[in-house]
Amino acid sequence: MKYQNNIEFALRMDQEDPLADYRHQFYFPKHDDGKETIYLCGNSLGLQPKTAESYIKAVLDDWKHLGVKGHFEGENPFATYHEDLGKKMASIVGAKKEEVVAMNSLTVNLHLMMVTFYRPEGKRRKIVIEKNAFPSDQYAVKSQLEFHGYDPDETLIEIEPREGEDVLRTEDITDLIIREGNEIALIMLSGLNYYTGQAYDMKAITKAGHHMGCQVGFDLAHGAGNLKLSLHDWGVDFAVWCTYKYMNSGPGGIAGCFVHSKHVSNKDLPRFTGWWGNKKETRFLMDDTFDPIEGAEGWQMSNETVLSMAALKASLEIFDQVGMDKLVEKSKKLTGYLEFLIDELKSDRIQVITPRDPEARGAQLSIRVLNSDKSLFKAISEKGVIADWREPDVIRIAPAPVYNNFNDVYRFVEILKGLVV
Q: Which helix H or strand E contains 117, and what residues bound it?
């Protein structure tokens, strides 16, 4: 696509956008002047769907009028509320419906997955993670190593970019896996790195890991609802994600979890168990022998927070209408336009560190502010832009395709232009 650096082009693109009307299904925060902000922070917290309030109220009404009977009565019984969410998320991450479940929060799910898939034995006890992974993943992985009695300094492999580069090369990841694979028990990477915005080649990484006998999992906090994923076909062993970013489920919203179908019927896999993971047919018989559901639901521990799931349901219905193919198609155009306009600034103060290959990124560009403090970020915030700052010098800009448009991107860069040129 040939982009143009003018407002007429941006407005024409918005007029021709088949997804334009979905923007009006979300609430935009207001700036001090009462106008809508330029919201480019969907990679941190997605906007509220306008239907979320009514979905939550419907749960409250069922609780109000049905009480405990609401678990099995009403239009959306509490006991099975999560099932439709799992089905809809499965289509988003490229999985079978029985491979996905809505439960817990991201780091809790990561720990539960490592209970099952980090099984050190002999010299095969190391875990691979990227050095600049989200800190919570670092904490979780290190604590799992320590729980098993290992020193993270000896058993954690932190892969980092080559000197002078900002992102990882796929060949460096796969070469490391092949070189040290006999000592690696688990490869646990981000699907998309929160800081640089780089999307990893999960298919190639999974193939290399399995070739060396390793288990492979991904944190898809920034990938689910953003990238075109095929978790089942890639053979990924497990994946976890939050839903309050691109899936717009609200602060601290219920998380998601994927377990490949090749594992779900294996009752011998170690796991932490709870009654909600027991087969539904016998769950309420209160037998003291755990009989897991044959699916990702078998990793559930407790019945979930239905009020939280209601907000996610509102957003997932929009995803279901649009489909990931159309979202990703628009996302590539929108992020590409952002990249084009930033290049047009020709400023020596800023540098995009996110890969330029559209297949190696999602709806985010990370802008490094050279030789600067947080002042530039504060300046754009004062002008009505909601973005995200990450220490020491990066502003993350994420035009979410379900509600952002080309005019948002153009106006943001015009604000940036007035500050750096």
A: helix 106-117
